[in-house]
Amino acid sequence: MNKKSIKDVAVKGKRCLVRVDFNVPMKDGVITDETRINGALPTIKYLVEQGAKVILCSHMGKPHNVLTEGFGLTKKEKKAVEKLPAEEQAAAKAEYLKKAVKDKEKYSLRPVAEKLAEKTGYKVTFATDVVGESADAAVAALKDGEIVVLENTRFMAGEEKRDEALCKKLASYCDIYVNDAFGTAHSSHATTAAIVEYGFVKDAVCGFLIEKELAVMADALENPVRPFVAVLGGAKVADKLKVISNLLEKCDTLVIGGGMAYTFLKAKGYEVGTSLVDTEQIDYCKEMMQKAKDLGKNLVLPIDTVVAKSFPNPIDAEIEVAEYDADKIPADVMGLDIGSKTAELFANTVKQAKTVIWNGPMGVFENPTLAKGTIAVAKALAETEATTIIGGGDSAAAVTTLGFADKMSHISTGGGASLELFEGKKLPGIECLNEKN
C-alpha cells in the first residue's frame, strides 16, 4: 500500500489534525496501560520538532449516552422514562443524566492529555469539547510546535454516523489530515475516513505507526519469505471465515488452535464433547480442509486436547483438567486448550518457518492451567529467527502478559484491523489517504 506519510509533505507552520488511538484502559481516572500513547509518540514528536501545529483527536470507549452537544439520553432511556407515570419521569430523567455526567468524566481524554504533557515536556492544551467554543479557542491560539488534544470524539453523535457538518468543522481546524490510528483504520467514522472521503481535506497522509503496520503486515502477506506459516486461534470459526480462506491461498501452512479448532475436529467426524462448536460452519470447515488439499497446503489441527468438566468460573479459577487425543474426547467434557503433543507439533511447525503471523490464543490463556498451549506457541515464536508478526487483540495481550513481547518482530496495535488485512479487505482509514506519486 503506497500511501503518503508525514515525511512526504511539508508540515512546518501547518495545522495537522492527527487521528490517534488514545483508547487507553483507565481505572479510577488513572491510565493503567500507556502502550497506545507510546505508539503515537514518534509521529507526535516528529510533527512538533518540524514546527507543525498539532491537533490530536481520538475516541475512548463507548459513551453512547454522552454528547457534548447536551447530556443526551439514549433512545432506550427515553423510552423507559416515557413509560413511567408523569410524576416519576423527572426524577428518572435526572438519574439517567447523572449517569451521563459520570460517563463523561469516565471517558474524558483529559488524563491522556495530561499524561502526554508529562511524557514529552511539550505544551499540551486540552479542549473540553470536540468542535465547540473550547476547541475553537485552543486551535486559534495554537503556535508552531504546540499541541491541542480534543475531547473524546465519541462524545459527538456524528462521529460514528459520519456526520458531514462535524467533518466540515473539524476540517476547518487543519491544513493536513494525518491518520495514525491503525486500531480504528477498519472503521469508517467521521475522524477515521469520512473527513477525507467527503473532500473536506485534500492533503491526507499516514503517521509512522500506520506506515510501519502496513510495511510489516502487508509485505508479509504479499511477499513473505517462505516457508510462511499462519497460526489462528480464538473462539469462533465464524469470526475468521474469510481470514482462513485468504490465508490458505497465501501461506504454506495454516495452524488452527483455540476454540475454533473443535469445529474442524467435528467436521472430521470426531466427538468433541461439550466443546465450543460453530454448528453452522461445519460444512465450511470441510470445504477449507478440501481447499488446503487442492492447493497443496498443510492444514495442521490439534492431535490432543486439554479438557475439563466445564468452563472455569471465574475465568482464572483453579480447575481440574485431563488430556485426551483429539479423536477420543469423552462426550461429557469441554476442550479448553491444546494438549502437550499438539503444543510440541505446533512449536515444531513454527520453528521451521521463515515468516509467521499469529492471531488468536490456543486456549483459555487467562487461566494459568489453560495457558500452556498459548505459552508453547509464544515461546516457539520467541525462539525462532523467523519474522514473527502478532496480529493484535488477544494474541498481543498474551505475548505481552507472558513476557515475550520484546522477542517478536512486530506486534500489531489493531486486532480488528489486522484481521481485516489478513482477510484481504481494504481498510477505509487507509484507503482514503493520498497515494505516493
Number of helices: 16
Q: Classify the secondary structure makeup into a structural class.
A: alpha/beta
Based on Cα principal axes, name the global outline: globular
The CATH class label of the largest domain is Alpha Beta
Strand content: 5-15%
* Estimated radius of gyration: 24 Å
Strands ordered across the widest β-sheet: 5-6-4-1-7-8
Task: Tell me the total number of β-strands.
Answer: 17
Q: Overall mean pLDDT score?
A: 91
- Give the CATH topology of the largest domain: Rossmann fold
CATH superfamily membership of the largest domain, which one?
Phosphoglycerate kinase, N-terminal domain
Write up this protein.
With 437 residues, the protein is α/β, with parallel strands linked by helices. The chain folds into 2 domains: 6-63 and 107-211, 3-Layer(aba) Sandwich (Rossmann fold), CATH 3.40.50; 224-423, 3-Layer(aba) Sandwich (Rossmann fold), CATH 3.40.50. 39% of the residues lie in helices and 15% in strands. The protein has helices spanning 35-49, 75-83, 86-106, 110-120, 133-140, 164-171, 190-197, 208-222, 241-250, 261-267, 282-295, 340-351, 372-383, 393-401, 415-423, 428-431; strands at residues 15-19, 26-27, 30-31, 53-57, 124-126, 147-149, 176-179, 203-206, 228-232, 253-256, 298-300, 304-308, 322-325, 334-338, 355-359, 387-390, 410-411. The strands form 4 sheets. It has a 6-stranded parallel β-sheet, with helices on both faces. A 6-stranded parallel β-sheet has the order 11-10-9-15-16-17, sandwiched between helices. Strands 13-12-14 form a 3-stranded antiparallel β-sheet. Helix 2 runs antiparallel to helix 3 (86-106) and helix 9 (241-250) crosses helix 15 (415-423). The longest helix has 21 residues, at 86-106. The chain starts with 14 loop residues before the first strand and ends in a 6-residue tail after the last helix. The model has no long low-confidence stretch (mean pLDDT 91).
